[in-house]
C-alpha cells in the first residue's frame, strides 16, 4: 500500500521491513504535503493596502486551490502547506499589516468561515482556505499572519506590545467541512521582525476521524523543547510541520533533520517547505519511523512546487501497547536488531580492542590524532578516516563517538576524505541551543581543514556503525547521501544509559553525512 501510492507520484520511498507490519487494513491514511514555489511581494518593506495585499495573496491561493484538487484526486485526507506560503517573508511589523487577519480561537468558538463568512470581518484568507478544505473534502493546514488585540498596560512586565496587539506567525487547520479547528502561534521565531512570540508556549492538537490526534509546530520550533518535545511527551505521535527552512549542510539540511526528528522521536512528521532557490529553501516530506517519502531539489532543477502524497500508518499513542518501553527516543527495528549485532561482530567495550585479535588491532587508528575544525559555527573535534576500513573514536567533553567503517570501492578512483567529529557544547550563532553531536562527514576537499564545510555530493559508499554516549535521550539520527537523498538506517538502538547506535550498509548513493544529533534541552538557558 505504501509503495503503490508513493511510487505513483514518483518520489523516493524508503520502507524498512518493520513498516510493512505496522499498518493493518483500516489503520492507515493518505497524507499530502506541498512544497510551494511562492509568488513573492517584491517589496515586502513597503506597506500595502488591504485590497493590494489580498490581490497578492490570491496568486498563492490559486496555486493552493489547484494543489488541493490534485491532492484530493489522489485520495489525500490531509494536506499541509508551508510556512509563509501566502504572504512571503521579510516584512516589518508595520509593512505586513495588510496581510493580517484576526483569527478567532477555535477553542472558544465553532466557526466555519466558508459557510458563515459574515461572522467576522476582514477574514477573506480564512474564508478562502475554509472553502478549499470543504470543496475538496480534506483537512487543510496553512500558515498565515494573525493579529490579536491585547490589553495595553504601562507596566514594563506586561507582555502586550506597545501598539496594543500581537502579531503571530500562525498555523490554521480546517476540517474537511471547512470548520476552523486549530490555531497555533509559532514559539521560536527566526529573524522575523513582523511577528511576536506568544506570551506562553502553545501546545495545540486537533483530532481527525481517520488518524486520531495531530500536533502543530512551525519551522525553527523543531529544534526546541517547546512546543515540540512537550507535544511528543504528551503522547502526540503525528506532527504537522509547515516550514520555510534555509538549508545548511552538513548537519541541518531540511530533509535531513525532518527524517532525524521522525526517527529520533518515533513520530510521523508531515513537513512542507517553501521552494526558493536564492534563500536555499527546498526539502519536504512525509516521514514515519519506518518510511520516508521526500523531495529535495538539486542545483539547476527548475524552481517549481512539488506535491507529495503517501499512505502512512496511523501511529497509536505510545504506552498503549503491551511491549513498549518508557524511552521515547530512538527506534528499534525489531526485524534486524539481534541478528545484525551478531553479524557485524561489533562491540565497543575496551575489551574488544584486545590485541589477541590481529585484524582488529590493525584497524584501530590512534584516537589521539585529532584536530579542531568548525562545522556549522561549532568547534568540532575530528579524526580522519585514513584507511578503507577501521575503527575510530573521538571525544569532546563528556561525549564520545565511535565509528566502525568499511568503504566499498569508489567509482572512477575519486579520492574523497571523511572525518568523524564530536561536539558537546552550546551553539550560539543564529539561535542558542545546547548540543551533543556525533557526525561522520565527507570533507569538502582533501585537506583536514575542509572537514565540516558544506558538500552536496559524494561517491564513496560505506558500511558503518556510528555510536555515541549521550547525556540526553533526545538524539536524532539521519543518513544523507549524495545530491540530497535520504537513506533509512538499517538499525537503530538506544540503551538506558544514553548509548545510541546507528548501523547501515549497502548504500545506494555516496555518503555525505551520517549523524546522531543530540539535543541537551535542559542546558539551553545556561
Ligand atoms: C530583506 O529586506 C532587507 C531590507 O530591505 C534586504 O536588504 C534583504 O535583502 C531582504 N532579504 C530577502 C531575503 O529578501
Ligand atoms: C464589520 O464591518 C462593518 C463596517 O465597518 C461594521 O458595520 C460591522 O459591524 C462589522 N461587523 C462585525 C461582525 O464586526
Ligand atoms: C516506536 O513506535 C513503534 C510503533 O508505534 C513501537 O512499536 C516502538 O516500540 C516504538 N519504539 C520506541 C523506542 O519507543
Ligand atoms: C581543540 O579545541 C579544544 C578546545 O575546544 C582545545 O582544548 C584543544 O587543545 C584543541 N586541539 C587542537 C589539536 O587544536
Ligand atoms: C592514518 O593516520 C594515523 C594517525 O595520523 C597515521 O599514524 C597512519 O600512518 C595513517 N595511515 C595511513 C594509511 O595514512
Ligand atoms: C548487503 O549486500 C550484501 C551483498 O549483496 C548482502 O549479502 C547483504 O545481505 C546485504 N545486507 C543487508 C543488510 O541488506
Automatic annotation (TrEMBL):
GO terms for molecular function: biotinidase activity. Belongs to the carbon-nitrogen hydrolase superfamily. BTD/VNN family. Catalytic release of biotin from biocytin, the product of biotin-dependent carboxylases degradation. Residues 1-17 form the signal peptide. It comes from the Eukaryota. The lineage of its organism: Eukaryota, Metazoa, Chordata, Craniata, Vertebrata. It catalyses: biocytin + H2O = biotin + L-lysine. Its EC number is 3.5.1.12. SUPFAM superfamilies: Carbon-nitrogen hydrolase. Keywords: Glycoprotein, Hydrolase, Signal. Coiled coil: none annotated. Residues 34-314 form the CN hydrolase domain. This is Biotinidase. It is an enzyme of class 3 (hydrolase). Residues 319-345 are annotated as: Disordered. The active site is at residues 83, 186, 219.
